[in-house]
Amino acid sequence: MEGIVMKIFYGEYFNSPCGELSIVFDEKETLLHLDFPDQGERQDRLLLKRFGPYELVEKTSRDIKGHILAYLSGEFAALDRITCDLGGTEFQNRVWSALQTIPLGKTCSYLELARQLGNPKAVRAVARANALNPISLIYPCHRVIGSDGSLTGYAGGLKRKEWLLHHEGAL
């Protein structure tokens, strides 16, 4: 319907040990997007693609911010208390779900992830799905590395990826 604008909520940007974060959620405080504002217009592009025209309304989140900060302070299970809605295609959702099977403190390669999904030739598609991951801490695309063990691609930047992997004990 023309003229309908999706109303979604955002908490204030907040500082964390790995940089400034932004959260977007619905009226039930289901997390829709988590991003690093210093990475340009990524959040706006992904929200527009997912929802079409939308209106961001400022609202304080009672729990999401606290759970994220608890995780970043070492209480890793805190992220399990956040309800998420990622949107995405069937393939993207399969990739994002597979990310959650990578244990804390471990990494896997894009190729390993593609094999886990039953299609070792889908390495580039897996990498693209990772790049479009809207909730990167809870669906831990930072745990996916190159086949040679190198840190490659992360929407939050490689320094942030390295920080997260150190924080989780993977490096």
TrEMBL record:
Reactions catalysed according to its record? a 4-O-methyl-thymidine in DNA + L-cysteinyl-[protein] = a thymidine in DNA + S-methyl-L-cysteinyl-[protein]; a 6-O-methyl-2'-deoxyguanosine in DNA + L-cysteinyl-[protein] = S-methyl-L-cysteinyl-[protein] + a 2'-deoxyguanosine in DNA
Kindly indicate where the leader peptide sits in this chain. none
Q: What keywords sit in the KW lines?
A: Cytoplasm, DNA damage, DNA repair, Methyltransferase, Transferase
Q: Which residues cross the membrane?
A: none
Q: Which domain of life is it from?
A: Bacteria
Q: Where is the active site?
A: C141 (nucleophile)
One Gene Ontology CC term in the entry: cytoplasm
Q: Where in the cell is it found?
A: Cytoplasm
- List the InterPro entries: MethylDNA_cys_MeTrfase_DNA-bd, MethylDNA_cys_MeTrfase_DNAb, MGMT, WH-like_DNA-bd_sf
MF terms in GO: methylated-DNA-[protein]-cysteine S-methyltransferase activity
* Keyword Transferase in annotation: yes
Q: Please list the GO biological process terms of this entry.
A: DNA alkylation repair; methylation
Enzyme Commission (EC) number: 2.1.1.63
- Methylated-DNA-[protein]-cysteine S-methyltransferase DNA binding domain residues are 90-170
**PANTHER family assigned:** METHYLATED-DNA--PROTEIN-CYSTEINE METHYLTRANSFERASE
What role does it play?
A: Involved in the cellular defense against the biological effects of O6-methylguanine (O6-MeG) and O4-methylthymine (O4-MeT) in DNA. Repairs the methylated nucleobase in DNA by stoichiometrically transferring the methyl group to a cysteine residue in the enzyme. This is a suicide reaction: the enzyme is irreversibly inactivated.
The family note in this entry says: Belongs to the MGMT family.
- Miscellaneous information on this protein: This enzyme catalyzes only one turnover and therefore is not strictly catalytic. According to one definition, an enzyme is a biocatalyst that acts repeatedly and over many reaction cycles.
Cited NCBIfam families: ogt
What is this protein identified as? Answer: Methylated-DNA--protein-cysteine methyltransferase
Source organism per entry reads Candidatus Terasakiella magnetica
